[in-house]
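Appendix B. One record, verbatim.
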Amino acid sequence: MKPPPTSSSSSSSISTSVLTRKGRLSPYLFTFVAFIIFVTFLYGQDLGCILGQLDLDISPNPPPPPPYTTENYYKKLPFSIGETEKGCDVFSGKWVWDPLNRPLYQESECPYIQPQLTCQEHGRPDRDYQFWRWQPHGCSLPSFNASLMLETLRNKRMMFVGDSLNRGQYVSMVCLLHSLIPDNAKSMETIGSLTVFTAKDYNATIEFYWAPFLLESNSDDAIIHRVSDRVVRRGSINKHGKHWKGVDIMVFNTYLWWMTGLHFNILQGSFDDEVKEIVAVSTEDAYKMGMKSMLRWVRKNMDPNNTRLFFTSMSPSHQKSGDWGAEPNGNCYNQTEMITDPSYWGSDCRKSIMNVIGDVFGKSKFPITFLNITQLSLYRKDAHTSIYKKQWSPLTPQQIANPISYADCVHWCLPGLQDTWNELLFAKLFYP
Protein backbone atom coordinates (compact mmCIF):
# COMPACT_ATOMS: atom_id res chain seq x y z
CA MET A 1 0.00 0.00 0.00
CA LYS A 2 1.42 3.38 -0.93
CA PRO A 3 1.44 6.13 1.63
CA PRO A 4 -0.61 9.24 0.80
CA PRO A 5 1.08 12.39 -0.49
CA THR A 6 2.19 15.01 1.95
CA SER A 7 -0.79 16.53 2.71
CA SER A 8 3.34 35.60 22.94
CA SER A 9 3.06 37.83 24.42
CA SER A 10 1.51 41.16 23.45
CA SER A 11 3.65 44.21 23.25
CA SER A 12 2.46 47.68 23.62
CA SER A 13 4.06 51.08 23.57
CA ILE A 14 2.88 54.35 24.93
CA SER A 15 4.22 57.57 23.54
CA THR A 16 3.22 60.76 25.22
CA SER A 17 3.86 64.36 24.41
CA VAL A 18 2.93 66.61 27.26
CA LEU A 19 3.40 70.37 27.34
CA THR A 20 3.76 71.97 30.71
CA ARG A 21 4.73 75.48 31.67
CA LYS A 22 8.27 74.43 32.49
CA GLY A 23 8.57 71.71 29.82
CA ARG A 24 8.34 68.96 32.41
CA LEU A 25 5.81 66.21 33.06
CA SER A 26 3.30 66.91 35.77
CA PRO A 27 4.07 64.58 38.71
CA TYR A 28 0.45 63.37 38.64
CA LEU A 29 0.59 62.64 34.94
CA PHE A 30 3.97 60.97 35.33
CA THR A 31 2.57 58.69 38.01
CA PHE A 32 -0.43 57.84 35.84
CA VAL A 33 1.72 57.04 32.79
CA ALA A 34 4.06 54.91 34.91
CA PHE A 35 1.07 53.00 36.25
CA ILE A 36 -0.25 52.36 32.73
CA ILE A 37 3.13 51.07 31.57
CA PHE A 38 3.38 48.81 34.63
CA VAL A 39 -0.10 47.35 34.12
CA THR A 40 0.50 46.83 30.40
CA PHE A 41 3.74 45.00 31.10
CA LEU A 42 2.25 42.91 33.88
CA TYR A 43 -0.91 41.88 32.05
CA GLY A 44 0.22 42.25 28.48
CA GLN A 45 -0.29 38.59 27.70
CA ASP A 46 -3.82 38.62 29.08
CA LEU A 47 -4.65 41.69 27.02
CA GLY A 48 -3.17 40.06 23.94
CA CYS A 49 -5.30 36.97 24.48
CA ILE A 50 -8.43 39.07 24.93
CA LEU A 51 -7.68 41.16 21.86
CA GLY A 52 -6.82 38.04 19.91
CA GLN A 53 -10.25 36.63 20.66
CA LEU A 54 -11.80 39.42 18.63
CA ASP A 55 -10.34 37.78 15.54
CA LEU A 56 -10.79 34.19 16.66
CA ASP A 57 -11.06 32.10 13.51
CA ILE A 58 -11.44 28.36 13.76
CA SER A 59 -12.89 27.81 10.34
CA PRO A 60 -12.30 24.11 9.65
CA ASN A 61 -11.23 24.65 6.05
CA PRO A 62 -8.26 24.93 6.29
CA PRO A 63 -8.06 22.72 9.40
CA PRO A 64 -9.10 24.55 12.58
CA PRO A 65 -6.36 25.51 15.00
CA PRO A 66 -6.89 24.96 18.71
CA PRO A 67 -8.95 27.71 20.31
CA TYR A 68 -7.22 30.38 22.32
CA THR A 69 -6.62 29.24 25.88
CA THR A 70 -4.93 30.62 28.93
CA GLU A 71 -2.32 27.87 28.85
CA ASN A 72 0.10 30.03 26.87
CA TYR A 73 0.63 32.36 29.79
CA TYR A 74 0.98 29.77 32.50
CA LYS A 75 4.69 29.51 33.17
CA LYS A 76 4.52 25.78 33.88
CA LEU A 77 1.47 23.58 33.63
CA PRO A 78 1.21 20.65 36.04
CA PHE A 79 2.98 17.47 34.84
CA SER A 80 4.85 19.27 32.04
CA ILE A 81 8.56 18.48 31.69
CA GLY A 82 9.36 20.43 28.54
CA GLU A 83 7.94 22.42 25.66
CA THR A 84 6.78 21.55 22.18
CA GLU A 85 9.22 22.61 19.47
CA LYS A 86 8.70 26.31 18.82
CA GLY A 87 6.12 26.97 16.16
CA CYS A 88 5.09 23.33 15.91
CA ASP A 89 1.41 22.47 15.59
CA VAL A 90 1.29 18.76 16.38
CA PHE A 91 -2.26 18.54 15.02
CA SER A 92 -1.25 19.60 11.51
CA GLY A 93 0.63 16.95 9.58
CA LYS A 94 0.33 13.80 7.51
CA TRP A 95 0.09 10.05 7.96
CA VAL A 96 3.25 8.07 7.16
CA TRP A 97 3.58 4.34 6.62
CA ASP A 98 5.58 2.82 9.51
CA PRO A 99 5.25 -0.99 9.73
CA LEU A 100 8.43 -1.23 11.82
CA ASN A 101 7.01 0.73 14.76
CA ARG A 102 3.29 0.10 14.41
CA PRO A 103 1.06 -1.02 15.98
CA LEU A 104 2.08 0.00 19.50
CA TYR A 105 0.54 -3.22 20.88
CA GLN A 106 -1.26 -6.27 19.51
CA GLU A 107 -5.03 -6.73 19.70
CA SER A 108 -4.59 -10.21 21.15
CA GLU A 109 -2.26 -8.92 23.89
CA CYS A 110 -4.74 -6.47 25.42
CA PRO A 111 -7.67 -8.22 27.15
CA TYR A 112 -9.43 -4.93 27.92
CA ILE A 113 -10.62 -4.10 24.39
CA GLN A 114 -14.38 -4.46 24.10
CA PRO A 115 -15.60 -6.90 21.45
CA GLN A 116 -17.11 -3.95 19.61
CA LEU A 117 -13.55 -2.80 18.78
CA THR A 118 -11.66 -6.06 18.16
CA CYS A 119 -11.69 -6.02 14.37
CA GLN A 120 -9.16 -8.81 13.78
CA GLU A 121 -10.98 -11.17 16.10
CA HIS A 122 -14.16 -10.51 14.14
CA GLY A 123 -12.72 -11.32 10.77
CA ARG A 124 -11.24 -8.16 9.30
CA PRO A 125 -8.98 -9.53 6.54
CA ASP A 126 -6.47 -6.64 6.36
CA ARG A 127 -4.19 -4.95 8.92
CA ASP A 128 -2.93 -1.94 6.97
CA TYR A 129 -4.95 0.44 9.16
CA GLN A 130 -2.65 -0.45 12.09
CA PHE A 131 0.60 0.63 10.45
CA TRP A 132 0.18 4.39 10.03
CA ARG A 133 1.97 6.96 12.20
CA TRP A 134 1.00 10.63 12.53
CA GLN A 135 3.82 12.98 11.51
CA PRO A 136 3.37 16.69 12.28
CA HIS A 137 4.72 19.14 9.74
CA GLY A 138 8.18 20.39 10.67
CA CYS A 139 8.57 18.49 13.95
CA SER A 140 8.00 15.11 15.54
CA LEU A 141 5.79 13.77 18.29
CA PRO A 142 7.67 12.57 21.36
CA SER A 143 7.55 8.80 21.60
CA PHE A 144 4.91 7.47 23.95
CA ASN A 145 6.71 6.48 27.16
CA ALA A 146 4.56 4.08 29.16
CA SER A 147 6.96 4.05 32.13
CA LEU A 148 6.89 7.85 32.39
CA MET A 149 3.11 7.87 32.10
CA LEU A 150 2.67 5.29 34.85
CA GLU A 151 5.13 6.99 37.16
CA THR A 152 3.36 10.30 36.61
CA LEU A 153 0.07 8.66 37.56
CA ARG A 154 1.46 7.31 40.83
CA ASN A 155 -1.03 8.12 43.63
CA LYS A 156 -3.25 9.89 41.11
CA ARG A 157 -6.49 9.52 39.14
CA MET A 158 -6.88 10.00 35.41
CA MET A 159 -10.41 10.04 34.03
CA PHE A 160 -12.03 10.05 30.59
CA VAL A 161 -15.59 11.39 30.61
CA GLY A 162 -17.97 11.24 27.68
CA ASP A 163 -19.45 8.75 25.24
CA SER A 164 -18.28 5.50 23.67
CA LEU A 165 -15.68 7.33 21.56
CA ASN A 166 -14.03 8.58 24.71
CA ARG A 167 -14.31 5.07 26.09
CA GLY A 168 -12.35 3.87 23.07
CA GLN A 169 -9.61 6.39 23.85
CA TYR A 170 -9.68 5.25 27.48
CA VAL A 171 -9.27 1.59 26.50
CA SER A 172 -6.44 2.56 24.15
CA MET A 173 -4.63 4.24 27.06
CA VAL A 174 -5.06 1.14 29.23
CA CYS A 175 -3.71 -1.03 26.41
CA LEU A 176 -0.68 1.24 26.02
CA LEU A 177 0.18 0.88 29.72
CA HIS A 178 -1.01 -2.47 31.07
CA SER A 179 1.84 -4.65 29.74
CA LEU A 180 4.25 -2.99 32.21
CA ILE A 181 2.08 -4.08 35.13
CA PRO A 182 2.13 -7.68 36.47
CA ASP A 183 -1.17 -9.53 36.14
CA ASN A 184 -1.64 -9.72 39.91
CA ALA A 185 -1.11 -5.95 40.27
CA LYS A 186 -3.83 -4.70 37.93
CA SER A 187 -7.58 -4.94 37.68
CA MET A 188 -10.56 -3.47 35.84
CA GLU A 189 -14.03 -3.11 37.33
CA THR A 190 -17.25 -1.55 36.07
CA ILE A 191 -20.01 -0.32 38.37
CA GLY A 192 -22.80 1.50 36.60
CA SER A 193 -21.41 4.42 34.62
CA LEU A 194 -17.90 4.11 36.04
CA THR A 195 -15.16 1.79 34.83
CA VAL A 196 -11.89 1.77 36.78
CA PHE A 197 -8.55 0.29 35.76
CA THR A 198 -6.26 0.07 38.80
CA ALA A 199 -2.46 -0.17 38.77
CA LYS A 200 -2.07 -1.39 42.34
CA ASP A 201 1.69 -0.91 42.76
CA TYR A 202 1.31 2.69 41.65
CA ASN A 203 -1.84 3.38 43.66
CA ALA A 204 -3.10 4.82 40.38
CA THR A 205 -6.38 4.58 38.51
CA ILE A 206 -7.36 5.26 34.91
CA GLU A 207 -11.12 5.65 34.75
CA PHE A 208 -13.95 6.08 32.28
CA TYR A 209 -17.26 7.65 33.18
CA TRP A 210 -20.24 7.33 30.83
CA ALA A 211 -21.90 10.74 30.36
CA PRO A 212 -22.51 11.31 26.63
CA PHE A 213 -23.74 14.89 27.20
CA LEU A 214 -21.75 15.56 30.41
CA LEU A 215 -25.03 16.89 31.82
CA GLU A 216 -27.91 14.73 33.07
CA SER A 217 -29.93 13.24 30.21
CA ASN A 218 -32.34 10.47 29.34
CA SER A 219 -29.36 8.56 27.88
CA ASP A 220 -27.38 8.23 31.11
CA ASP A 221 -27.77 4.48 31.54
CA ALA A 222 -24.41 3.01 30.56
CA ILE A 223 -26.09 -0.03 28.98
CA ILE A 224 -29.58 1.03 27.89
CA HIS A 225 -29.23 4.47 26.33
CA ARG A 226 -30.50 4.18 22.79
CA VAL A 227 -33.41 6.59 22.91
CA SER A 228 -34.94 8.29 19.89
CA ASP A 229 -35.84 11.61 21.51
CA ARG A 230 -32.82 12.76 23.45
CA VAL A 231 -33.34 15.28 26.25
CA VAL A 232 -30.72 17.05 28.38
CA ARG A 233 -31.52 18.74 31.68
CA ARG A 234 -30.27 22.31 32.00
CA GLY A 235 -27.82 23.05 34.82
CA SER A 236 -27.49 19.42 35.90
CA ILE A 237 -23.79 18.66 35.52
CA ASN A 238 -23.38 17.96 39.27
CA LYS A 239 -25.42 14.79 38.84
CA HIS A 240 -22.37 13.30 37.17
CA GLY A 241 -19.75 15.74 38.42
CA LYS A 242 -19.88 14.42 41.99
CA HIS A 243 -18.15 11.30 40.66
CA TRP A 244 -15.34 13.31 39.06
CA LYS A 245 -14.10 15.19 42.12
CA GLY A 246 -10.51 14.49 43.06
CA VAL A 247 -9.38 13.64 39.53
CA ASP A 248 -5.88 14.86 38.63
CA ILE A 249 -6.02 14.55 34.83
CA MET A 250 -9.41 14.95 33.15
CA VAL A 251 -10.18 14.21 29.51
CA PHE A 252 -13.64 15.31 28.37
CA ASN A 253 -15.41 14.73 25.09
CA THR A 254 -18.96 15.25 23.89
CA TYR A 255 -20.23 15.81 20.37
CA LEU A 256 -21.97 13.07 18.43
CA TRP A 257 -24.91 12.60 20.79
CA TRP A 258 -25.93 16.23 20.32
CA MET A 259 -26.22 15.82 16.55
CA THR A 260 -29.92 14.98 16.23
CA GLY A 261 -30.79 17.67 13.70
CA LEU A 262 -31.02 21.44 13.74
CA HIS A 263 -32.68 21.56 17.17
CA PHE A 264 -32.20 19.87 20.51
CA ASN A 265 -34.56 19.33 23.48
CA ILE A 266 -33.67 20.93 26.82
CA LEU A 267 -35.49 20.04 30.05
CA GLN A 268 -36.05 23.13 32.20
CA GLY A 269 -37.06 21.36 35.41
CA SER A 270 -36.45 17.83 36.64
CA PHE A 271 -36.94 14.40 35.10
CA ASP A 272 -39.05 13.66 38.19
CA ASP A 273 -41.56 16.39 37.37
CA GLU A 274 -44.99 15.02 36.50
CA VAL A 275 -45.38 17.65 33.81
CA LYS A 276 -42.06 18.29 32.10
CA GLU A 277 -41.18 21.61 30.54
CA ILE A 278 -39.11 20.90 27.46
CA VAL A 279 -37.95 23.59 25.06
CA ALA A 280 -36.29 23.12 21.70
CA VAL A 281 -33.24 25.27 21.01
CA SER A 282 -30.71 25.26 18.20
CA THR A 283 -28.12 22.50 18.44
CA GLU A 284 -25.41 25.13 18.67
CA ASP A 285 -27.10 26.85 21.65
CA ALA A 286 -27.64 23.52 23.37
CA TYR A 287 -24.01 22.53 22.85
CA LYS A 288 -22.83 25.92 24.11
CA MET A 289 -24.90 25.40 27.25
CA GLY A 290 -23.13 22.06 27.79
CA MET A 291 -19.67 23.57 27.30
CA LYS A 292 -20.37 26.42 29.71
CA SER A 293 -21.66 23.99 32.33
CA MET A 294 -18.53 21.89 31.97
CA LEU A 295 -16.25 24.89 32.45
CA ARG A 296 -18.23 26.12 35.48
CA TRP A 297 -17.78 22.70 37.09
CA VAL A 298 -14.05 22.75 36.27
CA ARG A 299 -13.55 26.21 37.80
CA LYS A 300 -15.23 25.12 41.03
CA ASN A 301 -13.67 21.69 41.36
CA MET A 302 -10.23 21.63 39.70
CA ASP A 303 -7.06 23.43 40.75
CA PRO A 304 -5.06 24.72 37.76
CA ASN A 305 -1.88 24.54 39.84
CA ASN A 306 -2.19 20.78 40.37
CA THR A 307 -4.60 19.35 37.79
CA ARG A 308 -4.89 19.24 34.01
CA LEU A 309 -7.93 19.55 31.78
CA PHE A 310 -8.11 18.16 28.24
CA PHE A 311 -10.94 18.29 25.75
CA THR A 312 -10.99 16.00 22.71
CA SER A 313 -12.58 17.54 19.64
CA MET A 314 -15.24 15.91 17.48
CA SER A 315 -14.54 12.43 16.18
CA PRO A 316 -15.66 12.14 12.54
CA SER A 317 -17.72 9.39 11.00
CA HIS A 318 -17.59 8.31 7.38
CA GLN A 319 -21.21 7.56 6.60
CA LYS A 320 -21.39 9.18 3.14
CA SER A 321 -18.98 8.01 0.48
CA GLY A 322 -20.02 10.94 -1.69
CA ASP A 323 -18.14 13.20 0.73
CA TRP A 324 -14.80 11.89 -0.55
CA GLY A 325 -15.86 11.69 -4.18
CA ALA A 326 -16.79 8.01 -4.35
CA GLU A 327 -19.99 6.53 -5.66
CA PRO A 328 -23.02 7.58 -3.59
CA ASN A 329 -24.86 5.25 -1.21
CA GLY A 330 -21.62 3.89 0.23
CA ASN A 331 -19.86 4.41 3.55
CA CYS A 332 -16.75 3.16 5.36
CA TYR A 333 -17.51 -0.47 4.48
CA ASN A 334 -14.70 -2.09 2.53
CA GLN A 335 -12.55 1.05 2.75
CA THR A 336 -8.91 0.07 3.23
CA GLU A 337 -7.20 3.28 2.12
CA MET A 338 -7.29 6.69 3.69
CA ILE A 339 -8.39 10.00 2.18
CA THR A 340 -5.41 11.79 0.65
CA ASP A 341 -6.93 15.25 0.07
CA PRO A 342 -5.28 17.38 2.82
CA SER A 343 -8.22 19.81 2.81
CA TYR A 344 -10.92 17.14 3.13
CA TRP A 345 -13.75 17.95 5.54
CA GLY A 346 -16.71 15.58 5.83
CA SER A 347 -20.33 16.67 6.10
CA ASP A 348 -20.69 14.96 9.49
CA CYS A 349 -18.39 17.45 11.25
CA ARG A 350 -20.29 20.68 11.87
CA LYS A 351 -18.20 23.78 11.40
CA SER A 352 -20.66 25.68 13.59
CA ILE A 353 -19.81 23.41 16.54
CA MET A 354 -16.10 24.15 16.13
CA ASN A 355 -17.02 27.83 16.26
CA VAL A 356 -18.94 27.25 19.50
CA ILE A 357 -15.91 25.53 21.02
CA GLY A 358 -13.67 28.39 19.97
CA ASP A 359 -16.05 30.99 21.39
CA VAL A 360 -16.56 29.30 24.76
CA PHE A 361 -13.02 28.03 25.31
CA GLY A 362 -11.55 31.32 24.15
CA LYS A 363 -13.16 33.03 27.15
CA SER A 364 -12.12 30.42 29.69
CA LYS A 365 -9.91 31.51 32.58
CA PHE A 366 -8.99 27.88 33.31
CA PRO A 367 -6.17 26.44 31.16
CA ILE A 368 -7.61 23.94 28.66
CA THR A 369 -5.53 21.70 26.45
CA PHE A 370 -7.55 21.18 23.28
CA LEU A 371 -6.83 17.87 21.54
CA ASN A 372 -7.75 18.75 17.98
CA ILE A 373 -8.02 15.23 16.56
CA THR A 374 -10.74 16.06 14.03
CA GLN A 375 -8.79 16.80 10.86
CA LEU A 376 -6.24 14.00 11.26
CA SER A 377 -9.09 11.53 11.93
CA LEU A 378 -11.09 12.75 8.94
CA TYR A 379 -8.50 11.20 6.63
CA ARG A 380 -8.95 7.76 8.21
CA LYS A 381 -12.02 6.25 6.57
CA ASP A 382 -10.02 2.99 6.62
CA ALA A 383 -9.81 2.76 10.42
CA HIS A 384 -13.45 2.20 11.47
CA THR A 385 -14.76 -1.06 12.88
CA SER A 386 -17.18 -1.33 9.94
CA ILE A 387 -18.74 -4.82 10.05
CA TYR A 388 -15.86 -6.38 12.01
CA LYS A 389 -17.24 -6.24 15.55
CA LYS A 390 -19.62 -7.97 17.89
CA GLN A 391 -23.19 -7.20 16.86
CA TRP A 392 -25.67 -6.24 19.55
CA SER A 393 -28.42 -8.28 17.94
CA PRO A 394 -28.52 -11.01 15.26
CA LEU A 395 -28.27 -9.73 11.71
CA THR A 396 -31.24 -10.11 9.42
CA PRO A 397 -30.90 -11.80 6.02
CA GLN A 398 -31.37 -8.39 4.42
CA GLN A 399 -28.48 -6.93 6.43
CA ILE A 400 -26.22 -9.87 5.65
CA ALA A 401 -26.94 -9.37 1.97
CA ASN A 402 -26.07 -5.66 2.24
CA PRO A 403 -23.12 -5.10 4.62
CA ILE A 404 -23.18 -1.35 4.03
CA SER A 405 -26.47 -1.25 5.93
CA TYR A 406 -24.92 -2.30 9.24
CA ALA A 407 -21.31 -1.08 8.95
CA ASP A 408 -20.21 0.90 12.01
CA CYS A 409 -18.57 4.06 10.64
CA VAL A 410 -18.44 5.80 14.02
CA HIS A 411 -16.15 3.67 16.19
CA TRP A 412 -12.52 2.77 15.54
CA CYS A 413 -10.59 -0.52 15.55
CA LEU A 414 -8.00 -1.04 18.29
CA PRO A 415 -5.09 -0.95 17.97
CA GLY A 416 -5.40 1.90 15.53
CA LEU A 417 -6.31 5.55 15.22
CA GLN A 418 -7.18 6.20 18.86
CA ASP A 419 -3.68 5.23 19.94
CA THR A 420 -2.57 8.34 18.04
CA TRP A 421 -5.07 10.42 20.02
CA ASN A 422 -3.30 9.23 23.17
CA GLU A 423 0.13 9.96 21.71
CA LEU A 424 -1.09 13.54 21.23
CA LEU A 425 -2.47 13.54 24.77
CA PHE A 426 0.90 12.31 26.04
CA ALA A 427 2.72 15.00 24.05
CA LYS A 428 0.51 17.81 25.36
CA LEU A 429 0.59 16.51 28.93
CA PHE A 430 4.39 16.54 29.14
CA TYR A 431 5.33 19.01 26.39
CA PRO A 432 2.54 21.59 26.27
